[in-house]
């Protein structure tokens, strides 16, 4: 589908009317910081929120509420006649809607699908509201901290993948003539989130989405950096003493799986990312 690109100065034909139509039939992905913010607003633990209101280990919000006229189910946090029950803790996807966000060449772009602004189909009353620039809209949505969290977790995603690269390229696995590791990397890039969650297993899912960070922080960058350190430490403890080629293969595959599962929670193109990582590995001598 064609996308329309915007800058922070582009004028939008809306101020959100909070009519709730966008709370039905969506796929809202979550990163660990967003899961924490949701749980705080819900006044439950992150584990409780994940287990009750999310899917695939915590990377997607459940939409299992009442149906609208189109047969689309409501978000698990939506209350009929009230709206979002945890509005202050809502994730970036909700704060940006109907915009998407992408980073190209270190520049952030905002996009929406199609030629017609999405909100005009279901919320025509927005035409009567004041027009805002993209920048002003995002400021009103208080998206800044959540954008910082998203960017920090993109870095963590690559850091986890780098462990998989080391296990493949620097251990003797690639030099042994191994071809099955990159083959499975490609398979993982095409897996559904439920398949990938099962491949990773509960232990790594918990470490990925429920970091044991006891220090209270309102800064997502600080939170993400502490989380990154915990994940790297876990990898060192898990893989520091492995020796056989089969163990190296399994560890490399697992780390790519963890990285791509996080990528799904960030709304990234896992197939494209996996293909890029495979080409990078091949450029350093790995074989497919």
Description:
The protein has 2 domains: 3-144, no CATH class; 145-283, no CATH class. The protein contains 12 helices and 9 strands. The chain has helices at 32-42, 46-53, 92-96, 119-122, 134-140, 144-169, 180-189, 193-200, 202-209, 220-239, 245-265, 270-283, and strands spanning 3-6, 11-12, 54-55, 60-61, 78-79, 83-84, 100-104, 107-113, 132-133. Helix 6 (144-169) runs parallel beside helix 10 and helix 7 (180-189) runs antiparallel to helix 12 (270-283). The longest helix has 26 residues, at 144-169. The radius of gyration is 20 Å and the shape is globular.
Low-confidence stretches: none
Tally of contiguous helical segments: 12
Estimate the helix proportion, in percent.
Answer: 40-55%
Mean pLDDT score: 92
Number of strands: 9
Q: Please give the order of strands in the largest beta sheet.
A: 1-8-7
Topology record:
Elements: E1 3-6, E2 11-12, H1 32-42, H2 46-53, E3 54-55, E4 60-61, E5 78-79, E6 83-84, H3 92-96, E7 100-104, E8 107-113, H4 119-122, E9 132-133, H5 134-140, H6 144-169, H7 180-189, H8 193-200, H9 202-209, H10 220-239, H11 245-265, H12 270-283
Antiparallel strand pairs: 1-8, 2-9, 3-4, 5-6, 7-8
Protein name: YkgJ family cysteine cluster protein
Pfam family, one: CxxCxxCC
InterPro entries: Puta_zinc/iron-chelating_dom (IPR005358)
């Amino acid at each position: 589908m064609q996308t329309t690109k915007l800058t922070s100065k582009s004028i939008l034909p809306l101020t959100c009317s909070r009519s709730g139509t966008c709370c039905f039939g969506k796929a809202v992905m979550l990163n660990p910081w967003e899961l924490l913010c949701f749980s705080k607003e819900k006044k439950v633990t992150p584990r409780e929120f994940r287990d009750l209101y999310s899917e695939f280990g915590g990377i997607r919000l459940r939409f299992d509420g009442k149906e609208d006229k189109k047969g689309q189910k409501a978000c698990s946090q939506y209350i009929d006649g009230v709206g979002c029950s945890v509005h202050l803790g809502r994730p970036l996807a909700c704060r940006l809607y109907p915009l998407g966000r992408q980073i190209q060449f270190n520049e952030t772009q905002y996009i929406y699908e199609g030629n017609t602004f999405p909100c005009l189909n279901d919320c025509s009353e927005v035409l009567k509201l004041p027009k805002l620039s993209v920048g002003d809209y995002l400021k009103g949505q208080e998206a800044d901290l959540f954008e910082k969290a998203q960017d920090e977790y993109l870095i963590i995603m690559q850091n986890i993948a780098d462990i998989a690269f080391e296990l493949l390229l620097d251990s003797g696995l690639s030099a042994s003539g191994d071809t099955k590791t990159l083959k499975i990397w490609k398979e993982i890039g095409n897996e559904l989130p439920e398949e990938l969650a099962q491949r990773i297993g509960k232990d790594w899912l918990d470490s990925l989405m429920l970091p044991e960070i006891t220090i209270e922080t309102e800064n997502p960058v600080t939170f993400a950096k502490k989380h990154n350190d915990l994940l790297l430490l876990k990898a060192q403890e898990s893989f520091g003493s492995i020796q056989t080629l089969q163990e190296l293969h399994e560890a490399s595959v697992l780390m790519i799986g963890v990285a791509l599962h996080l990528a799904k929670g960030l709304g990234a193109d896992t197939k494209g990312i996996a293909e890029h990582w495979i080409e990078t590995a091949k450029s350093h001598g790995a074989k497919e």
